[in-house]
Design a protein that fits this description.
With 376 residues, this protein is an alpha/beta fold. It has 13 helices and seven strands. Bound molecules: 2-acetamido-2-deoxy-beta-D-glucopyranose (3 copies). GO terms for molecular function: hydrolase activity, acting on ester bonds.
Amino acid sequence: MACKTASYVLVALCLLGLAAKDAAEATQLVPAVFVFGDSTVDVGNNNYLNSTKQARANYPKHGVDFTGSTPTGRFSNGFNLADQLAQLLGFPMSPPAYLSLTAKTIVSQMYQGINFASGGSGLADKTGLLGAGEVIPMSLQVQYFSKVVAMMQKLSGSKRTKTLLSKSVFLISTGSNDLFEYSLSGGDGDDGEFLLGFVAAYRSYVRALYRLGARKFSVVSITPLGCTPSQRARRLSEGGTRGCYGPINTLSLRTYSMLAASLRDLADELPGMAYSLSDSFAMVSFIFANPRTNAWSNQTATNTRFTELESGCCGSGPFGALGCDETAPLCDNRDDHLFWDANHPTQAASAIAAQTLFAGNRTFVSPINVRELALL
Ligand SMILES: *[C@@H]1O[C@H](CO)[C@@H](O)[C@H](O)[C@H]1NC(C)=O
Ligand SMILES: *[C@@H]1O[C@H](CO)[C@@H](O)[C@H](O)[C@H]1NC(C)=O
Ligand SMILES: *[C@@H]1O[C@H](CO)[C@@H](O)[C@H](O)[C@H]1NC(C)=O
């Protein structure tokens, strides 16, 4: 808005505009949210890459429950975890995908946050390349963020940049694709060695973000990956039996305590660092055990009752695990399904995850939840 023009009408409009902006900011618990990770939080970055079919979420069925029923690059029927956590923090949805921004729009957007996540990506640079084609690995996501920080410093000075970043939430949801690939490649290496590398990479990215100014981290740990439709189908085809695929569940479970110890050490070492780590394994296990209750979440805020815990809503074949593309069948009752497709939760399931990250008790999120983190 051309606020410098000396017209009374314009001045009044400018004041209104500023008041609206203040009101919006008053409901936000933090100035900005920056998002890193994989398809669990991607909001469209992959649509700008030369990714393969399975690493894209731009088929008509994606976003069937999104405003206008349009695919947006989210691996969901509607909002994903990044959107719903951002909403609880007072934003309309996740900040936009980094690759969707232009030289102009990035300048107005960066003070409110940006989403760098890329479906198929992981902690290792090679993760995703085979199945997903081009992805943005964590190392490049952090590099993109460093460009944004440099731009902010140039335009607003290093002091204001530092203040803004130190108050913002940095959401990280990554690592599942590293585990999937390790497991699919036979997982025959030394699991202990693989897991040490996994946690060392995680630590290096948290440290790199800290060096760039991040202080408040919301870290989403690995869910029981063996219970996704894709891994149930894998067990069925490999062994002929139904159930979760055990070996990858064991790996998923082991990452949690290693990640928890690693973040504890980092917070001891790095002044001003604070974090909120979800125990996503415990969260999802709780849903499997109690699909019809939500005692562990906010009773009044959600009424979800899952009746389909094994099959994806969009997809054909056993457990609907063959991919959600143009021709895949779609279920009617999305809110009854835990899984949207072979590997991703429905909007209803990520709503529960977001609420638990935000306001959950210490069994599911520790040492503090995201609301407490935001208010620090
Ligand atoms: C996209 O990737 C495919 C293989 O995955 C490759 O053959 C093709 O040349 C790539 N296209 C571009 C524009 O990079
Ligand atoms: C958190 O809530 C769950 C479900 O209600 C309960 O089983 C668990 O004991 C609670 N944990 C803590 C630390 O209060
Ligand atoms: C639960 O949700 C209600 C309604 O949205 C809200 O007023 C209340 O503060 C929430 N409680 C917690 C513990 O988050």
